[in-house]
Each structure stands twice: as structure tokens, then as C-alpha cells.
Amino acid sequence: MDGSHWVGVKAIAQEMGRRGHKVTVVIPEISIRMGPGEHYDTLTFPVPYDQAYIESVMATNKDVIKRSSQSFTEKIRTKFSQVKRIAGFLHITAESLLFNDSLISHLAEQNFDAVLTDPMVPTGSLIARKLGIPTINLLRGIPCSLDIKSAGCPSPPSYVPRFFTRYTDKMSFKERTVNTLVAFLEPLLCRLMFWYFDEIAYRFLGEEIGVAEVLSDSAIWLLRMDFTLEFPRPIMPNMVLVGGINCNVRHPLPEDLESWVSGEHGFVVFTLGTMVSELPEETTAIFLDAFRQIPQKVIWRYSGKVPDGVPENVKLMKWVPQNDLLAHSGARAFITHAGSHGLFEGLCHAVPMVMVPLGGDQPDNAERLASREVGVVLDIYSITTESLLWGLNEVINDTRYKENIQTLSALHRDRPVDPLDLSVYWTEYVMRHKGAKHLRSAVHDLNWFQYFSLDVLALLATVVLVVVILSVQCLKLFIRKLGRKRKQD
Amino acid sequence: MDGSHWVGVKAIAQEMGRRGHKVTVVIPEISIRMGPGEHYDTLTFPVPYDQAYIESVMATNKDVIKRSSQSFTEKIRTKFSQVKRIAGFLHITAESLLFNDSLISHLAEQNFDAVLTDPMVPTGSLIARKLGIPTINLLRGIPCSLDIKSAGCPSPPSYVPRFFTRYTDKMSFKERTVNTLVAFLEPLLCRLMFWYFDEIAYRFLGEEIGVAEVLSDSAIWLLRMDFTLEFPRPIMPNMVLVGGINCNVRHPLPEDLESWVSGEHGFVVFTLGTMVSELPEETTAIFLDAFRQIPQKVIWRYSGKVPDGVPENVKLMKWVPQNDLLAHSGARAFITHAGSHGLFEGLCHAVPMVMVPLGGDQPDNAERLASREVGVVLDIYSITTESLLWGLNEVINDTRYKENIQTLSALHRDRPVDPLDLSVYWTEYVMRHKGAKHLRSAVHDLNWFQYFSLDVLALLATVVLVVVILSVQCLKLFIRKLGRKRKQD
Asked: Which positions, given as ranges, span the membrane (chains A, B) (predicted)?
């Protein structure tokens, strides 16, 4: 997985290598941000596209943020074509790896002890199955809950809010109804998301098996989750929570940046993640207009064309050391798209947030933190200078937000084992024991009506019904006999 | 909680004290085995019984093992009178503490940060609620699953075997039916087990609240469970698994014992836990007869009258260093009543087991380990010299048992944090953060039909029904009109 998904995989790969394991990372020749690192080898495979194609796929993110002039159908069309482009890109990449016979045989010869992969794109899982290697999954979650389903984990829709609903764990009757409907639709969504991979799985593995079944064989699920961000919900024995994996990786700021950010009013960090590097002109103007009116300095990760009229307190940078900036004592607010990595960094360093979610899990993430009153959510499509100023003013000047996030941050950082160490531990565990079969629940041997005991309930209901009917019949017979007897008397 | 329940509480109390916390253990003046230890203070309260009373309650355990001469109704009567005696003992002890006003006010004045308790007897939980102190529970499990219910944890009867059923996680349809029925009966069992405590709760707290509700406020559940013994099942975020808390506490054997156990054939360790120190004469004779026929030496924890004809290879001792003996390389087999502490020690040191469960969770525990083929189960009520010899021969001479338990032991010992350290960590966590509210699931705000979304399903079913009926009516109307029109034509 590319993009932000790569961050965690790279961190674990590097740490595993540093501890003396032989780590081989298999990546496409051309990618958004995947590449070599410390302590691991890379093995690249050719892909039938070039950097320009990737950039064109990425650029669709900007189209999606285009402001509200679009009609509803136009918006849907834009969204749909974006999803189609991204899916096409993922499928081509997966096929380029899976059907590269010489590479697959080369991998088979290495006798790997384990595969670490993000199963959101199940390429790694398919290779692991083909080569008979136990799998460790590192992921944030799959929107149709395929991860939860494949791990056999209960997820009652009565208090576990579904993806895209923006609900919390406390839902009204109406919300619970919608949430239950979404839960019913999840299998359909999974079909839509994975039908092509199901087909690839059949072609690659030569067995009648879907992605869900392949994933259900995973040894360990490293979930980039934490209950300071997520709401409490059931988990399974082979699920390990490693949210905030990069919190402690911290470096001092470069000298020029350090001197620029220093000042009595502190500064604001503004990034929209790796997938969006620039905004439509009118949105940019709104942000600049708001920034002009605050005393804080603003560091904005912005890699597009530099707009006119950038105020003095704003610094546009193609790349920012986000974690180090947030760790700085001068950080007053964090304007973020509410991607999980950014949120965990903000949470780690207790910086209140103004969240402008763009898509994916971001609107849900944002609502979760907003429900804990550690930040505010603004709609990027209808944002105005006033709403942005209101948001910044709230989180910077109302001390409640800072206090709340300090409390939440203390809880988030208070864990028996550092998430990166824990990830490495369970990866090594799978290598040592050739899997973790004793943690795999027996739920996988049941079909859905057995799982919900519907067959047992049907039997019990039948027994109760028969007993009731027989009793009533006996009673009737008895009353009739009694009546007859009386007549005879 | 006294007896084996005390072992874990004491270990944590000592370790907390060693780390510099002020630990006060509140215990009755007279008890089975509770008492002072290192690094903690004890506070005793008077109870209206003496040591002889406790011994008479304990002696009922021996009665229960009386051999099969008893008829079924007699057995039930014996069992019932035993349960009644134990319950009476627990209730008197609880009331002596809760209604000791000066002690309770003294406790209130101490401003404790946390209460550590075994909620199987909810005295500690009631005091914690009264004084408004967050609670850490340390327990093996409550037979009616009140712990699971109070933690809001899903427990599907389709693959989570219930207490007393002796089932594994792979059940036939018949077994699933029985298991589901037991699950249905659990609330009733809870009523039976806790009705008196519900009444005490009302008297002590002065609020209309039951034990279940008091427990649902617990901050952290330290469960003496491990998935090498238990079958994989869902857990909740505030449940922490600390099975095998005493595994690493190890000392060398006393010199005389060391020299006695040494020998080419190794030795067998035989204990039946703290609750049973002697057996009926005829059962003792069977054991001695079997031991006479094996080349191994046998160390038997036995505190009753020494029987005649004890063979040379058998050593009866009032107390044995069980964990240190099992850790010895000469240990060939462990004859145990399958109490959880003993099993975890056997598992920790990879000693195959002959299990003779007596009651409580022991038959379930025994079946669990037997299903992993690390030991055999014998029925203490119908045991014979032959069956015992068969069992010992199996686990000592069939290398499969030793290999299996070595694999299972390696999995059991391979944990990111030592269970005792983990217990202390979460206890300190609760003290640092004054509870762990963010780990408490929203399931507690739902009633049972909301939890199972039954209200939502009823609405959805109604909607579907109305739509179907309306469609059928419309279709009828349409057909009728069509028919009339045709007639008119």
C-alpha cells in the first residue's frame, strides 16, 4: 500500500531490520512515496505506467475538493470517476506483481518466515497464501469492515458506528437504524470493493477462494487504532492495537524553521496529507484571508503554484517535518484533513485541531475527536474566512480544547508497550511460532446462521410451540370430556 | 477472596508495595490463608466465627469426593449443603466488613486511589462504589458470566462454551443447543448466586442498585486467562489478560528435597489445591497402589492422617513448593485437580498432566487442556488403579504429550509484558488517570433489545411488511380495474 499506508509498514520494516532480521520490501518501480529506507532491502517490479500517470491519478483529489458550484450529480460523477481511476491503478499494480512469474518464484525461494502487509489492497495476502507464509496485517481498517468480518470479530451496530456515518457510539434510534442499514449493506460494499480482487485471487491461486477467506487466515491484525480516538468496541485475541506508531520518533527542528516559528503567539501547522498538495484557488484565498487576521504564524505544507498575496505570517513549504513541528512547544493549533497519522501525531503532542476532512475515514475520525472536544470540524466544501477564523479562535483561545487534548494525550501515550515495539514483537512472534493458530477463533468454522445460533433458536422455538400446542389440545380435550361427563351426569 | 483467589491479589499487592505505593489489605481476623506479606499493611476486621468453623466449611470438600456409594439425590443434597455452607460463610464475612462502620469510615479517610478486588465476592466492589474509588478486578471468571455481562462483552454461545458444560469451542448441534440453553439460564444462575449480595448492596449503599450494575462501573478487568488454556473469544478494551501471574517466581528446591527427587526416572508432583488436603481412605489406597507400580518418585501434598503402607517412592508432605518442583527438570507428570493456578504452573514449566477435577471451573479447565492433548482427564469419583496407571503411562511415556505441552508452554510464556508487571501497570494506570472511563463501552447505556437492535429490526421488518402489503393491494386494485375495463370494453 502506497500513500499514508506506507508510513507504518516502513517503520516496522526498518525496526525489524535494525534488530537483525532480513527484511525485503517488494514495491513497484514507480510509486507515490514508497522506496528504500534503512535496514531493509527493496525488490522492485516493473509496472505498465509512468510517474505522470500516478500524478494524474493524484490530481483527481484536487478535482474532488472543487467548490460547491458542482451539482449533486456532477459531484457523484466526479467521485465515481476518481474511485474508478484509483481502483484501476491498484488493480494494474497488483496484477503486475502477482503475474510476474519470475518474481514470484524468486520470492518463493527465499523461504520467508512471515509477510507484513496492509490488506486494504490484498496483494500481499494473496502471495502469503500462495507461498504458505503466515501473515501479519497492518491497517487502519477496511471501509466495508472486511477486516472485522475476516477476524471473526463481533461488531454490534447498536453501539459500533459504521464507516462514513460520522456517528459516535451513542446513537439515537434514527441513527441506530441508519447504522444497522449500513451494516446490512456492508457485504454488498465489500463485493463492490473486492470483486476484481476475488477474480484475481482465483486466477492467481487457482482455487475457488475469495479475499475474505484468504484474510481470515491472517495470524495477527495490527490495527492502527486507539481507544482515545476510537470508541470502545469488542476486539479479538489476534487483534493488537498499535495506533500512534510514530509518536515517539522526534527530531529537533532545522535552525531556520526554529527561529521562524518562535514568537509569543506561537504557530499553526497546516497540512492536508500526502494525497492533496494544493487546493483550488478560491479555497486557498479563503485560508490566506483568515491567516492574515490571526497573530499566530502559519506553516502550510503546499506544493502547488505559490499564490499571490501570501501574508508575512504564512510560510508555504513543499514538505514540513509535521511530527517535529507538532512536538514543538509553540504549536497552538493543527489544521488537518483528519487522516489517522496526522490525528495520532496531534494527539501524541496534545495540539488542538481544526479538522477539514476530505474523504475516506477522515470525516469519521474528525467527528470522533470533535465528540471529545479536542478540536472542531469544518466542511472544506463550504468553508469561509469567518468559519475558519471561528475554528482557529475556538481551539487557540478557549483553553477547554487544550485541557481536553492534554488529558486525552496522556491516556493515548500511557501504554504498557510502545506501539512500534509491540508491532515488532508480534511480527517476531509470528516468525517464532510459524503463525498464531491458537488465537484464531472457532467462529471461522461456523456459517452465519450457526454463528447467530439461529438454527438452535429455531429448534427451541419449535419445541416451545409444540409444547404449547399440545398443552392447549390436551386442555381442550379435557374440558370437552369434562363437559360430556357433566351432561351424562 | 480467600483460598486460591488470594494468590494473585497478594502477588499484585506485594509488587505494588515494592514499587513504593502504600498498599492496605483488608482481611478478616480469621481466614483460610490470607495474611500479612511483604511490602503491604494489613487491616483486619472481627468476624463472628472461629478457625474451627472455617475448618468445618473446608471439610465439606472431602465429603463431596466421597465415592460413588452415594445415590444421585444424596449427591445433590451433599453438594447443595456444601454450597449453602460456603455461601453462608461468604455472606457473614462480607457483612462483618461492610457493616463495621468505624472501619468503613477509617477506609474513607485514607483517600485511596484505587481498589483491587476479586469481584467473585463483590464486597470490595461495594466499598469502592460507596467511597467513589475506581476499581480494578482480578478474577478467573464468575460462573454465571456476570463478569462478561458487566464488562459488556459479547459472548456468542455458538462458539464460546459456557461454564460447567465441559465443551470446547467446536460444538456439535446438540452441544450448541445445550450451550445456548445454559446461556439463557445464566441470568437466573446470577440471581441465585448474588441475590443476597444484591440485598446487601441495597442495605450498604442505600441505593436501588444490583451487583451487576456496580460491577459494570469497574475500570479494568484483569482476567487470569490465557488463550493457551482458554479458547479464543471476544474481549473488551478494558479487559487485560494476566493468566499465569506467578510463572516466573522461582526458587531452587531445599537440599533434602533436591536429593530425594533426583534419579533417572524423574518424579511426579501430586496436589489437589488448597481446598482439599486429604482424600477418602479408599481413594488414597487407589493412588498408593498405582504409585507402587511406577518407577517415578511421587511427591504428594497431603496433610491428613498418614495412611498405612506408603511405598518407598512416595513422599507425603504437608506443603510442597509446587511451582519450584514443576520447574525442576526431573518433573515427569503433574497430578492436579485442574485449578487454574496449578494448570498455569504446569503450563509454564511444560509438565504433562493427569487431571482429576473436583468442581468449580476445574472440569472445564481440564477438558480445555485435554483438547490440546497436553494431559488426560480422570474422574475422581470412579478412579481405579488401572485408570490412574493408564493416565500416568500416557503422559510420561507417550512423547506426544510432552511435545504438545512444550509447544503450548512456549506460546504461553511468549507475551510482550510479564502478567504480574502488566497487572501492576494497569493498576497504576487506574491510579494515574482516576479510572479508565474512555475504555468503558457505550453498551452500558443500552437495554438488551436495543443492544441486539431488536427495535430497529422490528421497525425495518414493519417497513418491509407494509411495503409488501401495499404493493400487493395496489397490484390487486390494478388487476381488478384492468378486469373491469376489459368487461366494459
From this structure: 456-479
